[in-house]
Each structure stands twice: as structure tokens, then as C-alpha cells.
Amino acid sequence: MTPVEFSGLLPGVRSARRYRREWLRPDLFAGLALTALLIPAGMGYAEASGLPPETGLYATIVPLLVYAVIGPSRTLVLGPDSALAPIIAASILPLSGGDPDRAVALAGLLAILMGAALVLASVARLGFVTDLLSKPIRVGYLNGIALVVIVGQVPKLLGFSVNRDSLIDTARLTVQGLADGLTDPHAIAIGATSLVLMLTVRRYRRRFPALLVAVGGSMVVVAFFGWTDQLPVVGPLPEGLPAPALGGLQWSDVSSMIGPALGIALITFADTAVLSRAFAARRGESVDSNHEMAAVGLASAAAGMLGGFPTCGSSTRTPAAEQAGGRTQLVGVVGAVMVMAFILLAPGATEYLPSATLAAVVIVAASSLMDIPTVIGLLKVDRIEGMLSLAAFVGVALVGVLQGILIAIALSFVAFVNQAWRPYRTELVRVEGLRGYHDATRHPEGTRVPRLVIVRFDAPLFFANAPLLGKLTSEAVNQAGPETATVILAAEAMTSVDATAVEKLIDLDDYLSSRDIRLLLAEMKGPVKDQLLRYGLGGRFDPSRFYPTVGAAVDDVTGTLRYDFGTNPDQPGRLLGPGESDFDHPSP
């Protein structure tokens, strides 16, 4: 394997070889800032999964280090996630019998099986499903994620917490908490100050490490005034580093975990793929979806082998890392190393970290995902694409991340089928002074070539839209009058024909023949001609019926060369000489 091929398999190695000195400072700061989110998120999602809090830190450290080496995205942050926690808990707790060690072992097995499923899917090249995630879906997804995250953090910013199942429940419980007076003035003061600081710096001084100042400053304030009992704090870290914890497993456990592992693999890849591609697009980069799938699978499997549980791309920590200025995978490495350092050297430091400050950090990071102008622009330019973006937004926000993505993809299919079913089609006319033949609806001043009708059909011809071609042609022929002798079909956009379309094409040819009108095919691609031959139409549509361009067909039918235009608008037209051609495919 050559060094280039090796670095292609290990993007982290390639990134390290191309690393720039000016990236080091922002990467270090972003890694330090990210640490403040990694610790409470890891511990919290572990408890939500029915596991000891230290497993959440292991499920943070290991995937970050592994993904930094093999992951294709330069910004994606892996870790425990709220979307996976309920599924993990429902999968392992009934089988654990209340034994924490067995629960940890089952969670590790679940992560290994999930990782194996993703790796096998990558080998099978199933990453193509991410091609269904168009820009409107990605924008709507990020807007939905941002709203869900922001609303979910508001209670923490106010000093209380809610058990939420949906965006609406969270909003309702937040309002109820305000009405019941559950807010904490200390938390509000610290959270609001942190929020204002970071938003102000983001607007006016982006290079200033506001996140670090907010986190460090809030910890100093809490420690100085002794507010650990006055407002919610993260609390001290558990002890111990990642280590194997798969003891006591049996083959029956493997069969029990396969179903949940496949479900988690689907959710993980759907969520991570959108997140990864969305952030890559924001930076003008691209991510190989099959490589991404394998990297996430291997990172989760590694976490399972070392006391962790299934992980995926984080929709809160990833934007936080980007917002803090992170440039490369070094951000995740710094975050993982810092978490280990805190566990070993200063496990009590987070005892003074207010939850309100973390909420402010997450809110600022999530707000950077919002892209309302793009949605407005889509609605103005293409209402269907704008509605797709809104559908993805509503689906993610109100139904769920995976469900919202699936809803938007389904609607994309509907929009695609509708567009293919009712493609743009038009008659082409001659416009004096302009080369080629042009859309009659856009050039009402154009005129038909005598005794000739030219039609254009802008889509592959298949069973659903084939009747429209006959309708377009018959209407144009009727409008042109009984003197029409030839119809030219501009077929450049017809990239394929199916059996039903072939039947309709034969019917059209028979209809025109019954009126003594000859059908010619211009600009049809070679593979489509081959399809017609395979359908046995070589005798009906012989080579004399095909022309390389519309202009060539018109010249042959009329027996003249067009000369109503010149190379300069101020000069008269001229007759074309041998070998000259002004007839390319018609302009829109």
C-alpha cells in the first residue's frame, strides 16, 4: 500500500501531515472548551442509558481518539447521544437483572454489534443513501436540531430541569416551571452573563476565547461565593480509565442484542451522516459516506470493548467545537486527553461548574446552526424545495430526528416523481437574429419554420410521463395547421426510455404517419438509440430518422441553410459555408 493510499484510509494521518501551525491555537482552545461539554454530557447520557456515569466518559474518550485517526470529517464530534440512550436502556436493562457489571457488558456488546453492522454496510457500499439528503433537507435538519437543542437547554439556564420526551413537552414544562417559581436567581445570573458574553464576542471579537472565559469565570464565581448548594452543578468526576468490561457474556446475549444493534446502527448512521455532510458543506468540504459509516462503526466498537456503549455524531458538541474555532480532528484528541487528565489529576474540578453555564454554551453553539435566510431564499426561488426544508425542520423538531429525516426524504421522492411525471416541455421556434431554436413560451415573437413543428421534452421518457409527449406534439401540430409535413423531436434530455414509453413513441409515430407527417429524432443520445434497437425498433426508426442537432434536421428538411443572423448584431446575416454550423442544442 502506497503512503497516499494509507493516508486515504486514515484521514487523521493525512491531516497531521498537512497540519498548519496557525491551526494549533484554535484547535487547542476548541478542545479545551469542548471538554466542558464532554464531561457532563457523557455522564448524563450514561445515566439515561441505565449505566454507571463513568461509562459515559469511556464512551466519550475512546470514540474521539479512534475517530480522530480514521474519521473522514474534520469537525465531527462523536459521543453518547440522547437519541440512543432510551434504546440502549430498553435493550440492556431487562437482561441485566439489576447487575451494573452485566449492564455494562451488555452495553459493550451492543456497541460492538452496532459497529460491526455499520462496517458491513460500508463494505456493501450502502452509504449512497446519504445522496438522498439534499441541501433543503440538510438546512431544515440543522434548523430543527438547533430549535430542539435550544428549547431543551432553556430550563437549565433558568436553574431547573425537566424530564422531556418532545419539543412540545419541554416547552410546556418550561412554562410550567416558570409559573411555579422553580427558577434559580443564581443560575439565571450566571447563565445569562455567560450567554451575553459569548453572543457579544461572537458578533464583534470572534478570536477572543469567550467560551473558555465563560466556563472558567463561572467556576471561579461558584467556588468563591460557595454556591455549590445554591444552583445545579456538574459535580465531581468518577474515577477510573477505559478498560475491558465484557465479562460474563454468553452466545444467547449476542442473539438478543442483534435486533437492537441494527436499529441503533440505522439511527446512528442517519443522524451522523446528515450532521457530517451538513458541517462539511458549511466548510466547502465533502465526506465519503461509506468511509464515514465505517469510521463511526469502528469508533463505537472500540468504545464497547473498553467499557463504553454505542455512540454517534453529537448535534450539540459538534457545533460547539466549530463555534470555538476548531479546525481539525485535533480538537477531539485534546478533548479526550483533557477528560482523562481531569479523571486522573483533578476529578473534583467540575464540582464548581454550573449547569447554567453549560446550557449557555450549548445554546450559543446551537444558534450557529440556524440558517433562516437560506430557507427564505429557497421559498423565493423554488417553493417545493423551500417546503421540503420546512418539512425536515418540522419533522425533526416535532416528531424526532430520524423520523424527520425520513419524512423529508419521502417528500423529496414525491417531489422528484412529480417533476419527472410532469416535466417541462415546449415547442421550439425560430427567433430572428438568434442562433438555434428557442422556447416558444419564452419567445412569443418567434415563428415556426414553414411545414415544420419542433418539440422538446426535458426528461427521461417513462410510463408516467410518456402520454404527455403525445399530447404536446398533437397540440403543436394542430396549431401549426394541415400543411405540417415534419415533426422534429429534440430528444437531448431523454436519457432513457422504458417499455411503456416505447409503446407511446410507436403510437405517436403511427398517429403522425396517418396524417402524412414524418417524425424525426434530433440529439438523441447513443445509449437511448441502443435501447430502441433492443426493443426492436431498428426497422421503424432507421438511421435516416436521427440527426445530431435540431439545426441539422431543419437544414435537411428545408434543403436550405439558415442565414437570418450574423456574428454581429449590426451586421447583416450571411449564408453559411461548407463545414460551418450554427445549430447546437436549443437554448432554454
Describe the structure.
This protein is mainly alpha-helical and 588 residues long. It folds into two domains: 408 residues, no CATH class; 134 residues, STAS domain (Transcription Regulator spoIIAA, 2-Layer Sandwich). It is 60% helix and 5% strand. Strand 5, helix 19 and strand 6 form a beta-alpha-beta unit. InterPro entries: SLC26A/SulP_dom, SLC26A/SulP_fam, STAS_dom, STAS_dom_sf.
Question: How is the secondary structure organized here?
Answer:
Blueprint: H1 3-9, H2 11-17, H3 21-48, H4 53-70, E1 78-79, H5 85-96, H6 100-123, H7 135-158, H8 167-179, H9 185-204, H10 210-225, H11 251-282, H12 289-305, E2 312-313, H13 317-323, H14 330-345, H15 355-367, H16 372-381, H17 383-399, H18 401-421, E3 425-429, E4 438-439, E5 452-457, H19 466-480, E6 486-490, H20 499-514, E7 518-522, H21 526-534, E8 546-547, H22 550-558
Parallel strand pairs: 5-6, 6-7, 7-8
Antiparallel strand pairs: 1-2, 3-4, 3-5
Short description, anyone?
The protein is mostly helical and 588 residues long. It is 60% helix and 5% strand.
Main sheet characteristics? 6 strands, mixed
Number of strands: 8
Strand order within the widest sheet?
A: 4-3-5-6-7-8
Give the N-to-C terminal Cα separation.
Answer: 49 Å
What overall geometry do the principal axes of the alpha carbons give? Answer: elongated
Tag the structure with descriptive keywords.
588 residues; mainly alpha; disordered N terminus; 6-stranded mixed beta sheet; transmembrane; two-stranded antiparallel ribbon; Transcription Regulator spoIIAA; 60% helix
